[in-house]
Amino acid sequence: ATGAMGEVPEGSPQAPLAVLSKVELRVSCKHLLDRDTLNKSDPCVLLLMQSQGQWMEVDRSEVIKSNLNPVFAKIFTVDYYFEEVQKLRFEVYDSHGHAEVGTHDDDFLGGMECTVGQIVAQKRVTKPLFLKYGKFAGKSTITVISEEISGNNGYVELAFRAKKLDDKDLFSKSDPFLEIYRIDDDRSEQLVYRTEVVKNNLSPIWEPFKVSFNSLCSCEEKRKLRCVVWDYDSRGKHDFIGEFFTTFEEMQKAMGENKVQWDCMNPKYKLKKRNYKNSGVVVLLDLKIHRVYSFLDYIMGGCQIHFTVAIDFTASNGDPRNSCSLHYINPYQPNEYLKALVAVGEICQDYDSDKKFSALGFGARIPPKYEVSHDFAINFNPDNDECEGIQGVVESYQSCLPKIQLYGPTNVAPIISKVARVAADEERTKEASQYFILLILTDGVVTDMADTREAIVRASYLPMSIIIVGVGNADFTDMQILDGDDGVLRSPRGEPVLRDIVQFVPFREFKNASPTALAKCVLAEVPKQVVEYYSYKAFPPRCPQTRDAPDANLGSPQ
User: Fold this and answer.
1) May I ask which residue range the UniProt record assigns to the signal sequence (predicted)?
2) pTM of the full predicted structure?
3) Which of 344, 353, 374, 511 could form a disulfide with 414 if both were Cys (CB 3.0 to 4.6 A apart)?
């Protein structure tokens, strides 16, 4: 299929060294509509991202000539923020070359919408393409594969050259470029990198480039790689010069002063020519390994974010039947508790495969005996406190209000300890498979401050983070102590936290802002907290394709 790929770009995007997380998106389509009468469609993909309610074009792929099942060589790179819902739209058009892509309705082959979080969590998303007004574009589908290329991620730097390649041109020398393919478990080939074209040269030296470990070999050193050398043709009909197979394990022999080289073979020539030796030699001049784990390493390795919400049902909130109450259910306007819950929960749900969330209450008298409880399930099922999705939490909250009596005091240590016990069980697995986020929504300063500080210090050794949102107009000054931003939080006995795991925010600061602003503020620290915990424990992320073999990694964290 490579021969029909259209023009080769001057080099694929390289992994930047910035701290900002970036994600590579690779796109392919199947069964596209055929808009051309004489030839097949010439597809091109546009990537758009929603910004302040408007769809803005981020980038576009190359045009692939006459192909209804294109695999695009273009790699889309998007900035990745865990704490935001980043909406993407992919639009496929039939390009005619002479006109701007996307200017005519007739050229539209279909579109698909999703979020960056969904692609990162699932790693591979296949969805149908839709025309306007929700109509299916026949059997057309689009597949998007994500891989991280952040500067925090492990990556490898490679430098190739070739010697004495076959000359495919009649009046000049070949214009060679090199492609590297990863061979996946299903024997399909994933284009990892395409070098720039070196014009009129049978012994080219290609520019060094960087690729992530995931992209190159799925974290498996013995995974087979196919490397192909082509003679570039401007009409897209590139001439095959030769190929060779290798592994990352073999490539590593090129570290230091050593070089590794392979015969570039043309299987047809090998069969036909008795004295055929090769069609040239490809040399790996240098290989450098950089290995640092990041938040996306853990998420793409299958680490699930388990979300628990704890709601303050103390009497200071006011009678829920009174419109002045912080728990008043207004059919036209969600209260502050619901706004905060939905804003944070909608981000977390993309990273939890079963979409079930634990929902707890504290500070109320609960049926049947109406005794005060500081860690009850708001669905009143003591054996299973989980609700189906954020909507399930909202419904349980609304249905539980008439059944309880708001009381007190504001004790949060029991709920922190409850989630910590579950996190401690997870820690014993010695795998980076589950991380816990506890969202506490409260209208006042906690009463059991000493016990809460002790519980937070204990929790700082476990895979969990705590977000506290202060609801209402109380004086939350004392709550800032729990947020270690102004100094190290200590237990009553003077023991410091291992990690800063608490983020406190008064909701009133975001009352007139969008829900995304609140979520962005309270979740911004979570990726760093996840990495700090697993780095301290020296737990490597499980590789995406090798979750059953956690030891198949490329080394220990730096």
Assistant:
1) none
2) 0.56
3) 374
